[in-house]
Design goal:
- The complex is a heterodimer of chains A (318) and B (454).
- By secondary structure, chain A is mainly α.
- Chain A is 71% helix and 2% strand.
- Chain A folds into two domains: 32-72, no CATH class; 84-313, MetI-like (MetI-like fold, Orthogonal Bundle), CATH 1.10.3720.
- Chain A has helices at residues 11-22, 26-59, 76-81, 85-116, 123-135, 138-148, 155-160, 174-202, 206-214, 219-230, 232-248, 250-259, 271-280, 285-310; strands at 62-64, 70-72.
- In chain A, strand 1 and strand 2 (70-72) form a beta hairpin.
- Chain B is an alpha+beta fold.
- Chain B has 18 helices and 14 strands.
- In chain B, helix 3 links the parallel strand 1 (49-54) and strand 2 (83-88).
- The chains are: A mainly alpha (318), B alpha+beta (454).
- At the A-B interface, helix 2, helix 12, helix 13 and helix 14 of A face helix 1, helix 2, helix 5 and helix 17 of B.
Chain lengths: 318, 454
């Protein structure tokens, strides 16, 4: 670049003269590079998420038959929701799933992150072991758990048989199926969340902890007053991300689709599965689009509330 | 030009849902928009090529069923200007996925495709099924067994040609019976006997009997015979008739098998239709499934000894079974629907020696079915296809008691599916479940305007 070849005798003049031509400061160059790296993903998001989302808003006002015919119906699709018992049932199922899965996954992942933050022998192996489930496709996860949870003959039934629980069907009993999904989902995401939280923990300055220790703080106090507050931004990200994932994500669809198809007796019919059913079984694509906008609205509201209560996870001094 | 332009390949569930709830919009709405800028890259190409979407071939394993499809297409292409181009879609995606739906929504449906009775009215009412009548000679029509074409007809016009008949029966494991000290004399004929025998067959590692437990129209398909045995039906003369003693007792029978803990709440493998994974693995002793399992067992568990019996009936009930089977249909909005109709009539309906042989191959060599046409049955008989064993029993005893699978749209089969699920797996009261389902079906029928439901 021209600036670097400038004669040392008149650096300041040459540099200021050259800057507009060379175009960029280091900061701008970095920003541009960042955008370049983000571009493929941004384009994908735009094409496959943003644009369809906006289109869904429009389609929600139409009756769409699945064969390319559109008929304008105004707010009829939204009005229909009031009397749609199965919609409310599926929203309730989703809510139960979210409020059980999100906190459990967070606590366990945080615990794991604390466990593996310090070096010890075999730490790489331990971290990989926790992370491994996340690498596997959820369809495969479904098949693995299907195998483990087979009625009577599965590994889980064999383990429980001595306690007289060998006959329990985890995926075939309505009262147990959703809980089973919570367990499988936690198992699936804990490695990923652990990794994110671990990155947050690495940013907690060791000096602060050392100083607290010298001041006589116990392990719990060091966690409560040093680590926990400094982890707020990371924790916030994990919780919000995990909530959105639990409502719309792969666990709420792929797993259910592979394992129980919303059964037994609709016990695992999550709202995303219900939307899928409306769109692709009943051909009610307009109604499905309307449902989608409502679910997105609920998610935006939930995220907004979380922002409000935690100040977006920022430190109060910011 | 490719028959299946990549532009319109449906967005996969995974990629879409990962991005959030843009799913439906991407799949459902993106279509027309893409079409608008994508020009007329129709699935039918330039009218000289017809796309044929199916879940048999050409598959990666290149098995006999795949080969049959490939051979049929090649044979046609050798003698005709308008060529057939096969596109294989894995069975799970075809049956429960979004591939077909998104294609039709975006006006890019295939020219020829396979359809089950459960989807017939949806596609017919959507106006995309081509009338095959003009391509079908009278002698071909009269060659089909009674009822089969009617189930795929509206106002006397035929819209789909069945490729097979798949009756349901109970499969039993000889080893399980012997081990439980039971003999052939103990094979159940009634529901009560089934429950009693199943209890004897249930052990630490095995269930006595199994019916499908996964929700979906396959489960409905397997349950209808028990409804019919008590002379029940979901719809009669265009009006709901589901709230009947026959429905209540059939719901109760399935519920009883679970409550008595003699049947699993969740099947292995691909579910109730998968005899290899369930009966074949020894996990159940008595399993309801279709005739296709004969070929499956031959291919994957050839040494396993089993037999079949007709579906047990309630006391005083009449024997009944459900006759499933997929049909070839043509897209009336495709590029060349007349040629597609001709292809279908030729592939499945030809009454010359070659056509009969093609059908015989499909129905008794590469797959086990009851042939849907009299001439094909005769040809199969001449080769001794049904002379002995389970296939003989299927043809002689079971198939004659069958009714074609009903062509209920989702608005009818979903309330029934919910009733079955609620009683079977959630201990609901059959009387209330039947009444609830009837009410929902009634609400739908009052505003329904499509072709007759039967």
């Amino acid at each position: 670049m021209t600036t670097t070849t400038a004669p040392p005798s008149k650096p300041s003049v040459r540099r200021t003269a050259a800057t507009p031509k060379a175009g960029m400061t280091r900061k701008r160059r970095e920003a541009l590079a960042a955008y370049a790296f983000l571009a493929p993903d941004l384009l994908g998001l735009l094409a496959f998420v943003a644009v369809p989302m906006v289109l869904a808003l429009g389609v929600a006002f139409f009756k769409v038959d699945g064969f390319g015919n559109y008929q304008y119906v105004g707010l009829a699709n939204y009005k229909l929701m009031g009397s749609d018992d199965q919609l409310w049932a599926s929203l309730k199922i989703t809510a139960i799933y979210v409020v059980s899965f999100v906190p459990i996954a967070f606590v366990i992942s945080f615990g794991l992150a604390m466990l593996v933050r310090n070096h010890f022998r075999g730490i790489g192996w331990v971290r990989s072991a926790f992370f491994l489930p996340h690498v596997v496709s959820l369809v495969v996860v479904g098949l693995i758990w299907q195998f483990l949870l087979v009625d009577k003959r599965g590994a889980v039934s064999k383990l429980l048989a001595p306690f007289g629980l060998g006959d329990v069907s985890f995926l075939g009993t309505p009262s147990l199926a959703l809980g089973t999904y919570v367990v499988i989902s936690v198992w699936f995401v804990m490695g990923y969340q652990m990794l994110v939280l671990l990155a947050g923990l690495k940013d907690v300055p060791k000096e602060l902890e050392d100083a607290a220790q010298i001041d006589g703080a116990s392990a719990w106090q060091r966690f409560r007053f040093v680590i926990w507050p400094l982890m707020r931004p990371t924790s916030f990200f994990v919780v919000v991300n995990s909530t959105i994932g639990a409502v719309t994500g792969l666990q709420a669809f792929d797993l259910v689709f592979v394992l129980t198809k919303g059964g037994p007796a609709r016990a695992t019919s999550t709202v995303v599965l219900y939307i899928y059913e409306q769109a692709f079984t009943f051909n009610n694509i307009g109604y499905a689009a309307a449902l989608t906008t409502v679910v997105v609205g609920i998610l935006v509201l939930c995220t907004g509330l979380m922002f409000a209560f935690t100040k977006g996870g920022r430190f109060s001094e910011d | 030009m490719s028959a299946t332009p990549n532009l319109h390949r449906p967005v996969s569930r995974r990629s879409v849902l990962r991005g959030g709830l843009g799913a439906l919009a991407a799949a459902g709405v993106g279509g027309p928009l893409l079409t608008a800028c994508g020009g007329d890259g129709g699935s039918g190409g330039d009218g000289k090529e017809m796309s044929f979407w199916n879940f048999y071939g050409p598959s990666d394993d290149g098995g006999p069923q795949s080969k049959w499809f490939v051979d049929v297409a090649e044979k046609w292409n050798a003698n005709n200007d308008v060529k057939v181009k096969l596109r294989y879609i894995p069975g799970k995606d075809y049956l429960n996925g979004t591939t077909l739906q998104t294609a039709f929504q975006s006006g890019e449906g295939p020219d020829i495709f396979l359809i089950s009775p459960g989807d017939f009215l949806r596609y017919y009412n959507g106006g995309v099924l081509q009338d095959l009548s003009s391509a079908l000679p009278a002698e071909a029509k009269s060659d089909y067994l009674p009822g089969l074409l009617e189930a795929r007809s509206v106002d006397g016009k035929v819209y789909g040609l069945p490729m097979e008949i798949e009756p349901l029966a109970m499969y039993y494991s000889e080893a399980a019976f012997t081990k439980a000290g039971l003999s052939e004399a103990d094979l159940p004929k009634t529901w009560d006997q089934t429950l009693a025998v199943a209890e004897k067959l249930t052990g630490k590692d095995r269930y006595g009997v199994m019916f499908e437990t996964l929700p979906g129209y396959y489960q409905n398909f397997t349950w209808y015979p028990f409804l019919w045995q008590g002379d029940g039906t979901p719809i009669k003369d265009g009006k709901v008739a589901f709230d009947s003693p026959a429905a209540v007792q059939a719901l109760k029978f399935w519920k009883d098998t679970i409550q008595a803990k003699v049947a699993p709440r969740k099947a292995l493998g691909d579910g109730g239709g998968d005899v290899v994974s369930n009966l074949g693995s020894g996990a159940v002793a008595l399993q309801q499934s279709g005739i296709w399992a004969v070929a499956d067992m031959k291919g994957k568990a050839a040494k396993f000894k089993y037999g079949i019996i007709p579906l047990p009936t309630p006391d005083g009930g009449k024997p009944a079974t459900d006759l499933g089977g997929w049909a070839f249909v043509a897209n009336s909005k495709g590029k060349n629907p007349e040629a597609a109709a001709k292809f279908i009539a030729w592939a499945l309906g030809s009454t010359d020696a070659e056509g009969v042989e093609r059908q015989r191959q499909w129905n008794t060599v590469v797959k086990t079915n009851v042939p849907p046409r009299k001439s094909v049955q005769a040809a199969a008989d001449a080769k001794g296809a049904f002379e002995q064993g389970v296939l003989k029993k299927f043809v002689d005893e079971i198939a004659p008691t069958g009714q074609p699978e009903p062509r209920f749209p989702p608005e009818v089969y979903q309330p029934i599916a919910d009733a079955i699920q609620a009683c079977q797996l959630n201990g609901s009261d059959p009387g209330k479940a039947a009444a609830d389902a009837a009410e929902r079906i009634d609400t739908f029928l009052k505003t329904y305007q499509g072709a007759p439901i039967s």
